[in-house]
Known about the structure:
With 206 residues, this protein is of the alpha+beta class. 26% of the residues lie in helices and 25% in strands. It contains four helices and seven strands, in the order E-H-H-E-E-H-E-E-E-E-H. It has helices spanning 68-72, 80-90, 117-135, 186-203; strands spanning 58-61, 94-102, 105-113, 139-142, 151-157, 160-169, 172-179. The chain has a seven-stranded antiparallel sheet, sandwiched between helices. Strand 5 and strand 6 (160-169) form a beta hairpin. The longest helix is centred in the middle third of the chain and has 19 residues, at 117-135. Mean pLDDT is 82; it is low at 5-41.
Amino acid sequence: MRPRVAILSVALCAWLTGCGASHTSASHSTSTATAAPVSPSAGILARVLTNNELKGFTGSPEGIDTSAGTWLAGEQDPDLNADHARLTRLGFIHGVREDLSAGATPGLSVVEQFHSAKAASAELAAEIAEDKVEAGDRDKAFAVPGIPGARGYTLIQGSQGGINIAFVKGPYYYLVGQELAPSQSVNAAIAGVTAAAQHLYHRVSS
């Protein structure tokens, strides 16, 4: 299982996925980002969130990983061998992770490229299944309007947690999310992440 938005409690989840929330009126939220549409020639680095596309968050993408082994390097996951085998079988090509921040609040944007849209969709399904097993009843889904097949999910414990959205467009698997900021409501965080995911979905080409 790779980077998710549960950065806040690494013990709770390995990636930003690990801490989330419930439902919100995310469809009414808008992003202030004005990034230009991505063309196929722009490269995979242009397929992660730009500054303020997730409102208030900035960051810069890390290097491009070109194999399942380098993409998973450093992960401490009991399913690491299974993840490596799955990525290899699905035809993993490239992966980029971007750590975001808004003050002390972390966020995340991830993109993985596969050989086909079918493979990217299979990766999304595998990640959903793995998350449900690991998080159990703490994993709460929410609707993501405007992105076909997208999965919004949260994992909250007390006042801490993460909000994540995963989706596929063409041969690319995307994950965006953030940890719950101090004094931020779950609904507000879901609305912000949803707006960023919607903007990214319409910005990138398939």
